[in-house]
Design a protein that fits this description.
By secondary structure, the chain is α/β, with parallel strands linked by helices. It has twelve helices and twelve strands. α4 links the parallel β2 and β3. The chain starts with a helix and ends with a helix.
């Protein structure tokens, strides 16, 4: 009702309130609300100084927006493999992928934990390149007291409805401690207009300093996110307990190749396992009314939209292996443990029949 009575439905006072609340929660000096996590990546890259033709090293195992955002921002993604024991970008592979035109490396914090950010920062420092974080999934993830997205020039959040903090539509944000990056991102989201535009209708008539886009967050989404932010920490704690319950069930089960590690800093956006006969298991679970998701069926270097880069199967073997075996199981904060019992029993029975 507050938004309706105010009469400003996007880029209004609720968006400003959410930016302040997210700044307090994450510790970011600046939060810039935009209309999606993908736009947040594109605008962050541009605001951080990506130039046409600059290269950005990205992991080959991630959602496509990690790499497509680089293209949309005017750059060129260069792929790297992931770590042997996790899903973060492999620091050694960053070295192999870095060349004269490399401007940034973009670690991605996937599923439940940060990439090896200390190693990434050390590698980037030695190579003389900047760090931009795809922290779209990482709200609540911290390392030594620093929130995801704040280790380099900046990071992003996605508030897609399935995320740990989800809206009822699309929304996202840029996080940064850099005032110049924040100012540029804030202008780019509103057609390149500098100065105060949020909750300031006359601001639409200010001079346009950059070629920007229309990526304003709407106030209905901001209102929903403000309400859900009040229960975020309890939701994260509940997700951790559910992840532990899953892990207790699945540990030692035949057919299970890898389980997520529950650490003190873990924030479980999804519960992703690696299994033998992944596609057959997913099909079996579907017949039992259990919905799963594959993160991700195709590695980025083999996506058709990047075919001109000339990659082949075998170029990034760990990313390719993850795409063959990963499966996300049903997972949400108010999921009853009896549903987990059902899911795990079906997985057990499936693999027993395969022996």
């Amino acid at each position: 009702m507050d938004v309706i009575e105010n009469g400003k439905y996007s880029h209004g006072h609720k968006v400003a309130e959410l930016e302040r609340a997210l700044s307090a929660y994450t510790g970011a000096r600046f939060v810039v609300g935009v209309n999606s996590g993908t736009d947040a990546l594109v605008l962050l890259l541009r605001a951080a100084g990506l130039r046409p033709g600059d290269e950005v090293v990205v992991p080959a195992f991630s959602f496509v927006a990690t790499a497509s955002s680089v293209v949309l921002a005017g750059g060129r993604p260069v792929f790297a493999d992931i770590e042997p024991d996790g899903y973060g970008i492999d620091p050694d592979s960053i070295v192999d992928a870095t060349g004269e035109r490399t401007r940034f490396v973009m670690p991605v914090h996937l599923f439940c934990q940060l990439a090896d950010i200390d190693a990434v920062l050390d590698t980037a420092g030695r190579l003389g390149i900047g760090v931009i974080e795809d922290s779209a999934e990482a709200i609540g993830m911290r390392h030594r007291g620093t929130h995801a997205g704040l280790f380099g020039r900046g990071g992003v959040l996605s508030f897609f409805p399935t995320k740990t903090l989800g809206a009822i539509g699309d929304a996202g944000a840029v996080l940064t401690d850099d005032p110049a990056v924040a100012e540029a991102a804030g202008a780019l989201r509103h057609h390149g207009r500098f100065g105060r535009t949020i909750d300031n209708f006359p601001g639409i008539n200010t001079e346009t300093g950059l070629i920007g886009v229309n990526s304003k967050m709407d106030d209905i989404q901001a209102s929903v996110l403000l309400a859900k932010l009040t229960t975020l920490d309890s939701d994260i704690a509940r997700r951790t307990r559910l992840a532990e319950y899953y892990t207790d069930w699945l540990t030692g089960m035949p057919g299970i190749r890898k389980l997520p590690v529950v650490r003190p800093a873990s924030v479980f956006y999804t519960y992703v396992i690696e299994v033998d006969a992944r596609d057959e298991l997913a099909a079996h679970l579907a017949t039992r009314g259990v919905q799963t998701e594959i993160y991700y069926p195709t590695p980025l270097h083999l996506q058709p939209c990047f075919a001109d880069m000339g990659h082949r199967l075998g170029d990034f073997p760990r990313a390719e292996a993850a795409c063959r075996h990963t499966l996300a199981l049903p997972f949400y904060p108010d999921m009853p443990t009896t549903h987990i019992d059902q899911v795990c029993a079906e997985i057990r029975d499936f693999h027993r029949r395969r022996l």
